[in-house]
Design goal:
The protein is of the alpha/beta class. Helices cover 43% and strands 11% of the residues. It contains 16 helices and ten strands. A six-stranded mixed β-sheet has the order 3-4-10-5-9-6, with helices on one face. Strand 1 and strand 2 form a beta hairpin. The longest helix is centred in the middle third of the chain and has 15 residues. It is globular, with a radius of gyration of 21 Å. The protein starts with 5 loop residues before the first helix and ends with a helix.
């Protein structure tokens, strides 16, 4: 039998993290170079004038840099292949003006018609997925939609402990007609750090012992923990580690010149749902309406029919489908209770990550004022 001191545990854990590909920063961005798949296909040339792609009482108006905006009485038309798309204005009691902010699943699934609608009507995309997911885009998706958006990459400012403290855009937004902001809120390294941090001392020693003898067994030990904890753990880790990315996302939404904005992850369920919850909460939407909006995503994975689709930056095959592929009320209920218990509520949480009262007023003005 081996006896493990705290020093041994730390040494094993550090070695395991490095061997498990955690040399990246905790937000999923690299500090020296960034690898994002970019399509070589030409951008789609979409002209929706005179077509039936836009329906309902939607008035289209020319915006700056020839980007089409929406001033809508109803929702953007249903997309053929991009699932789980809806306007934040559609939530009961939402003060958000229609056509300014949309939540959706990954737009990489867009058909040609979907691409035309997105390009003509969405000026800014916010991609909440991990670096690993970005790198799979070229082989996974065959859409031209991203070719029409310039990538806004962020550099990472870190504390001495290696924890991300801020994200800084690498160029001014004003120079970009259409932008896709790469703002990962969680990746595998965060799961490993966050799960290990939450383990009881005895389980930490056991995890270190597994890492010492078997990578496969150690990984399964963590996956078992994640499956037991479920989706509330995902949201807890995002709130704990994803603050700089959340702040950057809200800064984009709080700038009216970026509108219309669509933010998304893989399915538009959990990472996207957390951002939607924070925005709607600080704008005064009640809990019941926010939970009801989250539950609308319950069938998205079955609708997508994609077994390779990631779930919260984790491989679907490793997760309990009954726990991770659904959107039960209990998940958002528990997340909002955690937000109040641990942080004092959504306003206090946002203030803790650097998005203070004046920023909330900017967000309200951008999303809600005429």
């Amino acid at each position: 039998k081996m006896a493990f001191s705290r020093r041994h545990v730390s040494q094993y854990w550090l070695t395991a993290l490095l061997s498990w590909g955690c040399a990246l920063t905790v937000t999923g961005f690299q500090t020296s170079c960034t690898f994002h798949a970019k399509s070589n296909r030409p951008a789609s040339t979409c002209s929706l004038a005179g077509t039936a792609l836009l329906r309902g009482d939607i008035v289209r108006e020319r915006r700056q840099n020839a980007v089409m905006g929406l001033r809508a009485q109803f929702a953007m038309p249903t997309l053929e292949c991009v699932k789980n798309t809806r306007d934040l204005a559609s939530v009961t009691g939402s003060p958000v003006k229609a056509g300014r902010a949309f939540r959706t699943s990954c737009v990489g699934t867009a058909s040609e018609n979907d691409s035309c609608i997105i390009i003509e009507n969405i000026k800014t995309l916010i991609d909440l997925r991990s670096d690993r997911e970005y790198q799979m885009d070229a082989e996974k998706y065959n859409s031209t939609v991203w070719a029409s958006y310039d990538e806004m990459i962020y550099s990472v400012k870190k504390s001495k402990s290696g924890r991300a403290t801020a994200l800084i855009p690498t160029r001014a937004e004003g120079s970009i007609p259409r932008a896709r902001h790469m703002l990962s809120v969680i990746d595998e390294s965060i799961y490993k750090r966050g799960v290990f941090k939450r383990m009881h001392p005895g389980k930490k020693i056991k995890a270190a012992a597994y890492f010492a003898v078997s990578y496969t067994r150690a990984k399964q030990y963590f996956i078992d923990y994640i499956n037991r904890a479920g989706l509330p753990l995902l949201n807890e880790l995002i709130l704990d580690y994803g603050g700089p990315s959340i702040k950057a996302c809200l800064d984009v939404l709080a700038d009216r010149s970026n509108h219309p904005v669509a933010f998304y992850c893989t399915a538009g369920k959990d990472r996207t749902g957390l951002i939607a919850m924070l925005v709607l909460s600080v704008l005064g939407v009640d809990d019941e309406a926010i939970v009801s909006d989250y539950v609308l995503s319950d069938s998205v994975y079955s609708d997508m029919k994609d077994k390779s689709a990631m779930v919260g930056a984790l491989q679907q095959e490793n997760l309990d489908p009954d726990t991770f592929l659904r959107a039960p009320r209990s998940v958002m209920d528990s997340t909002m209770k955690l937000l109040r218990k641990e942080y004092g509520g959504p306003h206090k949480y946002l203030e803790s990550i650097g998005f203070g009262p004046a920023d909330v007023l900017r967000l309200r003005a951008a999303l809600c004022d005429e």
